[in-house]
């Protein structure tokens, strides 16, 4: 049984060095290529850009640490929702310091819903970004606890065409590359682990799909300016298999907000999603 008394537990700060090799490796993992020099060349004119979705990478260490503190087996975890908020563009050098907090533990009967919040600061102590993730931990529910707040519903305006629609094809090797940025769950590389989890083959990391959608928002709503990207929240609705195409659509709903939906050839994979741009 999960220890609900751990709600409020905060650990850190954890130091993370920003290095161009790690940044470029992440960018390759979310589909940037040789034609995207600003993201894959450390001597790019104007400096190396950092995709806003990189905000999830410096918090991997505290994320795994807190799962260990909560005695949660990674193989039971399904990523339900993810949100990031950027206060300024991520730097391409220097050090970042991150803390992680257990914001909530809720009883979903067959699973526990664990909500984690992180805060990342730069060397000057200024907040760079915050993240929030919701994790379904199978087999840990049923203690009769609070089921948690109702999730915000985000409805796609089907009565009008999207303001942008951008498709990126993933590589058959996409998960093999992305995992080198820190998420080494065997579900994404080992066929036997994937079958044990109920999938016919390894699936793409949800945060890799999140990164592909972030790229589309940058191109479709921010004119490529990472400084305009302020936030992004999603619900993971279905899996992506490496080699599939991810099509991201965005509808402007005013005040710099876009309703976002991402889908493969088979299904909607990111739903109830909102992006905020400046």
From TrEMBL:
GO molecular function: (3S)-3-hydroxyacyl-CoA dehydrogenase (NAD+) activity; 17-beta-hydroxysteroid dehydrogenase (NAD+) activity; enoyl-CoA hydratase activity
Highest rank taxon of the organism: Bacteria
GO biological process per UniProt: fatty acid beta-oxidation
Domain MaoC-like residues, every copy: 159-258
InterPro entries: HotDog_dom_sf, MaoC-like_dom, MFE-2_N
Record protein name field: Acyl dehydratase
Coiled coil: none
One Pfam family of this chain: MaoC_dehydratas
Annotated Peroxisomal multifunctional enzyme type 2-like N-terminal domain residues: 19-139
């Amino acid at each position: 049984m999960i220890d609900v008394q751990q709600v409020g537990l905060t650990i850190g700060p954890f130091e993370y060095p920003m290095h161009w090799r790690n940044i470029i490796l992440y960018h390759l993992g979310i589909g940037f290529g040789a034609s995207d020099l600003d993201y894959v060349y450390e001597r790019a004119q104007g400096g190396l850009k950092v995709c806003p979705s990189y905000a999830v990478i410096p918090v991997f260490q505290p994320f795994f640490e807190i799962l260990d503190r909560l005695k949660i087996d990674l193989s039971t975890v399904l990523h339900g929702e993810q949100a990031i908020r950027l206060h300024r563009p991520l730097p391409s050098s220097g050090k970042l310091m991150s803390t992680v907090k257990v914001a909530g533990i809720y009883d979903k009967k067959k699973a526990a819903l664990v909500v984690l919040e992180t805060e990342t600061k730069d060397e000057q102590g200024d907040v760079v970004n915050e993240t929030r993730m919701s994790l379904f931990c199978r087999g840990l529910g049923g203690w009769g606890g609070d089921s948690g707040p109702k999730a915000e519903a985000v409805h796609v305006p089907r009565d009008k065409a999207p303001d942008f629609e951008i498709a990126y094809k993933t590589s058959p090797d996409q998960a093999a590359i992305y995992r080198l940025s820190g998420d080494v769950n065997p579900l994404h590389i080992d066929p036997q682990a994937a079958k044990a989890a109920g999938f016919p083959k390894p699936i793409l990391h949800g945060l890799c799909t999140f990164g592909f959608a972030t790229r589309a928002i940058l191109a479709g709503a921010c004119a490529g300016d990472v400084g305009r990207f302020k936030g992004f929240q999603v619900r993971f609705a279905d899996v992506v298999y490496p080699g599939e195409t991810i099509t991201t659509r965005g509808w402007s709903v005013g005040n710099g907000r876009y309703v976002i939906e991402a889908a493969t050839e088979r299904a909607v994979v990111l739903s109830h999603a909102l992006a905020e741009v400046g």
